[in-house]
Amino acid sequence: MSQSILLVEDDDILRDALAYRLQEEGYEVREARDGDAALSEARRLPPDLVVLDVMLPRLDGLSVCRILRAESETPIILLTARAGEVDKIIGLESGADDYVTKPFSTGELLARIRAVMRRTVSTQGTLQLEHDDLRLNIERRRAYLGEKELVLSPKEFDLLAELMRHSGMTLSRDLLLDRVWGYDFSGDTRTVDVHIHWLRDKIEVHPSRPKRIHTVRGVGYRFEG
Predict the structure, then answer these.
(1) 4-121: CATH, from 3.30.2130.10, 3.40.50.2300, 3.30.559.30, 3.40.50.720
(2) What are phi and psi of 208, to 5 degrees?
(3) What's the CATH architecture for 125-223?
(4) Contact 61, 78 (CB under 8 A)
(5) Which of the pair, 101 or 8, is modelled with greater confidence?
(6) CA atoms within 13 A of residue 180's CA, in its CB half-sphere
(7) Torsions phi, psi of 92, nearest 5?
(8) Beta strands in the chain (DSSP E)
(9) What is the pTM of this model?
């Protein structure tokens, strides 16, 4: 069965061109031209991935992203005309898995889609994140390294899922704190460092020389996948 993509873009010419190219690549494409229609379509028949423009009529893309993320784990790629670092962080904080800055080539968008699809595998209705022999079953909240099931605390699981969902991207400590512990958490960013240390002990062959979770000095962490 073809993987389905919900394409949300108010520019009719761009939307038609992207839909045509995505269909050429074998994807089933459904379309929406505003935020309200996007929510209705995503709820009617959940797609495997959403390509979502930020600047939309009626309900903007960031608001749509937040609502969809609260309701499901469906991967979301944002299309944005703004390239500033603050805008990218806002997009990630809204729940996006990746972003593409306009103008972009269809080849770049397809590469991003394939990368997110590889990271997020839907199997028999069960959402999984996979990297080599490391697998997370999101629905059942179970983690495996090879054939061995890992014993992770709820926050360790959520932190690892957040890193794997944004594989290859550097996530700041503050962003991880907000996404995993919540904006009203009263602790500090050292909480993230401690949980990263615990995760490395469980998923790295040599925790002192990590190959999966990398430290980006002065910023945060990046999962390599």
Answers:
(1) 3.40.50.2300
(2) -80, -15
(3) Orthogonal Bundle (1.10)
(4) yes
(5) 8
(6) 27
(7) -65, -40
(8) 4-8, 28-32, 49-53, 76-80, 98-101, 120-123, 126-131, 134-137, 142-145, 148-150, 170-172, 213-216, 220-223
(9) 0.62
